[in-house]
Amino acid sequence: AWLARHGSSPLGFDTETRPVFTKGQSRAPATLQLAGEGTCLVIHLAHLELDSAGGWPPGLVDVLQNRSILKAGVGVADDAIELWESYGYELCGRVELGGVHTDETARRQQLGLKALAKTFLGVEVPKSAAITKSNWEASPLQTKQLVYAALDSWVGREVFVALGKLEPSFTQPSAQRTAASERSIPELYARRLARKAVRAQFETLDSALLQQVRHEAEGPGKLPRHGAKSQRARMRAVRQHVGALRQECARVLACDDLLQLYVAPPPPQTSVQMAGAPEEGVFDTEVD
């Protein structure tokens, strides 16, 4: 019922996953959130009632896979990959907001939802570590969990709408781009693996360089005192340079799929009303 009433573009999108504290382990996303105008749907995937064929409700699948229905958020590609790996469904119509920036000198710095909400909506989004690390697979979810989950998806949609008002050319090109050239989830997954391999190579290089620096600095002292000091200074400078290069390459790799868009920040607001923000009871948990 919710999807029939509110499942039109644009939607805010997010997921929540039960945390794991053992390296190398992971869990499937436990919730999926969609936000429409003034309303949010929190789907408890960990306890979702499947259809007769053992799949998700067709209405939900249709919305998720419809490229013309935009789903905006931060880290959307990562969430989409986790959904695909865990449940086999592709999320289409993805709009990544993390590449939006208000500082033209910081084009490769990804913004989080909290920073986006502060900049473009003028609201402070509370982030509770206790709720973030809570058990999202438990049933029923607590009210504070539902509000927390709904708020993240609401921020995604409202930031997207606000960007359209500040930069009118933003919304329509987003729809055209996602429909024409959106990468498939398997392709995104392959690119993620390639990035991990490149990062591992940089980390190996950095480790080897550090060992070389230590070897030169702590060697047998064959160089004169002033020569040894100069050598250590040169090696330190080289290591700093390579380290900075590694970090920059990692940022570029991480932001490769981000929509890079500069938007002038809105003027400061003296008073802010969180109109339409989800509060207790202002969300739905029905999927049909």
UniProtKB/TrEMBL annotation:
The Swiss-Prot or TrEMBL record annotates one GO molecular function as:
nucleic acid binding
Pfam families this protein is in?
Answer: DNA_pol_A_exo1
Which keywords are on file for this protein? Hydrolase, Nuclease
UniProt GO cellular component terms: cytoplasm; nucleus
Task: Look up keyword Coiled coil and say if it applies.
Answer: no
Domain spans labelled 3'-5' exonuclease:
8-165
Q: Name a single GO biological process.
A: nucleobase-containing compound metabolic process
Q: What InterPro entries would the database entry show?
A: 3'-5'_exonuclease_dom (IPR002562), 3-5_Exonuclease_domain (IPR051132), RNaseH-like_sf (IPR012337), RNaseH_sf (IPR036397)
Q: Which PANTHER family match?
A: 3-5 EXONUCLEASE, EXONUCLEASE 3'-5' DOMAIN-CONTAINING PROTEIN 2
The name on file for this protein is: 3'-5' exonuclease domain-containing protein
Record lineage: Eukaryota, Haptista, Haptophyta, Prymnesiophyceae, Prymnesiales
